[in-house]
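This part of the workshop introduces the protein records we will be handling. An example says more than a description, so a record of this kind follows:
>
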Amino acid sequence: MTYTGDVVSGGPSDRRDLPLLTIRKASVGTMANNVYLLTCARTRAQLLIDAADDPARIMSLLDEAGGALDAIVTTHQHWDHHRALAQVVESTGVLTTAAGAADADALPVLPTRRLSHGDALEFGDITLNVIHLRGHTPGSVALAYNDPHGHTHIWTGDCLFPGGVGNVQKDPERFASLLSDVQTRIFDPYDDDTWIYPGHGADTTLGTERPHLAEWRERGW
């Protein structure tokens, strides 16, 4: 099975099998939000990233994987990333919900865990490292998985996409903050083969985007 990361809203999910982790990606809703389900290969523990919309589709994604849901992480407070959060929490009975500390109070379900830069999230044999990225929202977080058998994988929410950083509503201070965090906390410590899974649209790699950092800074968005 060849993973491409190319999914469309209402369409089938795509699946990537790593030695210790299975990644499922689906697109939901009118904003074509990406939803990611991560499953520990050995224990079947599972973590969902962004219950963005269409709770029925998210529940069917869980059915694809089987097993219980252990945690939901919301990458940031914007409405299109948590429209199904309350319904999925109720339907699954999941006990752990998490979000960046500065965005937590804006969510429809107050998280049981408020995340800070450098925190670790564990489920089964898997550890995700929390990266706080300030600018798109005050509490946006990315999650990094350092695959011991391969390269790093990072889920960036709406902070990093193919072609640039996330929307800052043309605010130069927010743009400077976001680009600085993305550069120092993602591009600087991680290698070119790091795979980026954004909150909308296609995936990319740091090697693809790195040559354009100066261009992004010059254009201001």
User: Anything to note?
Assistant: The chain has five helices and 15 strands. The domain at 14-219 is CATH 3.60.15.10 (Metallo-beta-lactamase; Chain A). The two ends are 36 Å apart (CA to CA). The chain has a mean pLDDT of 97.
